[in-house]
Every structure is written in C-alpha cells, then in structure tokens.
Amino acid sequence: RIEIHPDFNSDNLHNDVAVLELTTPITYRYHINRVCLPPPDRVHPYGTECIATGWGKDAFDGEKFQVIMKKVALPVVPSDKCQELLRETRLGQFFILDPSFVCAGGEAGQDACTGDGGGPLMCRNPTTGQYELYGMTAWGIGCGIQGNPGVYVNVPYFINWVYGIMQATPEQQQQHNAGPYTK
C-alpha cells in the first residue's frame, strides 16, 4: 500500500511525502537499518550537525552513481536563512520556502546530490543522542555549492499525518519505535 500525502504538489514538490506499507519484512544488515522518528515539534538549532546518506552522484554533472553508500555531515540551516540564501539563486527574490521543507548544508563540496532523493537526513535527539529522521532529501540548486543549502522534506512537520496513516498515536508508536542508529 502506498499513501501519498493528499496535499502533494508535483509542480513545486510541496508535501512530498508518502507512507509505504511493505508486504514482506525488511532484513536488517549493517547498511540497511531503521531510524527513530522525531516528535512533531522537533526543530534543530542553526549549525546542528546532521548526517545525510545516499548512493547518488558526487557532483551535479557527475556521470556515475556510487557503488558504496556515502555519508556526509551537514549543518542545519534555519528556514528563514535558507530562504534568504535560495533567493540569491535562480529561484529569485520572491521565492518562499514552504514549511514542508527544512534545509541543511550550504558548504562547498558537502551535499546530497542527484540520485540521493528520498534518502535520510538524520540528526541526533538532543536528549537521548539517538539519530532521528529529520529530513528526506528533496531538491537543491546544484550540489555542494557554497551558500546553497540542500532542501529536505520536513519529517517532524508530517509526523502526525504519518502516525495517522499507521493508525498509532505518537505514544503508541514510541513504544515500538526503531532502535537507535548511533554510528
């Protein structure tokens, strides 16, 4: 079963999230694991180091996808700062960052890229230290360009919708939440 968010807009990628119900269990391995879900009010401060992973290209115009999954540490960029930075790109001065997105990165050579879409942006829970899924790679202007943060689906923004699809309250889900990813 695939539940696409009812407000998904394919023109601007707002609300670009879906819940998949699998027919067979996942076999967890070193490079295939789960990650905790965040509370709906989770906001990480400017500069919080998060981790993005993926199999995508290492450059926007790169020719090959990765054969080994890569990871990169990226700082969180607050939405107002991200919008300001993205207005300096081809998006222009009237660009408005939708609340369905969060941003990270903006450092030269450090970014998710083509082929990483849907991959995780994981940040540590400030209390437990466990990684939580803060974002999912959505889009960007180029890859790894200084001053151009990457844009990610804002997972906390959608978490109540996700729990509704899963028919579990956040409290019920917390009892069955994914184990810690601490690497």
UniProtKB/TrEMBL annotation:
Under CDD domains, the record lists:
Tryp_SPc
What's one GO MF term for it? serine-type endopeptidase activity
The UniProt keywords, alphabetically, are: Disulfide bond
One family name in Pfam for this protein: Trypsin
Entry keyword annotation includes Nucleus: no
Pinpoint the Peptidase S1 domain residues.
1-167
Single biological process term from Gene Ontology: proteolysis
Which InterPro entries does the annotation name?
Peptidase_S1_PA, Peptidase_S1_PA_chymotrypsin, Peptidase_S1A, Ser/Thr_Proteases_Immune/Dev, Trypsin_dom
Which SUPFAM superfamilies does the record match to this protein? Trypsin-like serine proteases (SSF50494)
The text of the family note is: Belongs to the peptidase S1 family. CLIP subfamily.
> Under which name does UniProt file this protein?
Masquerade-like protein
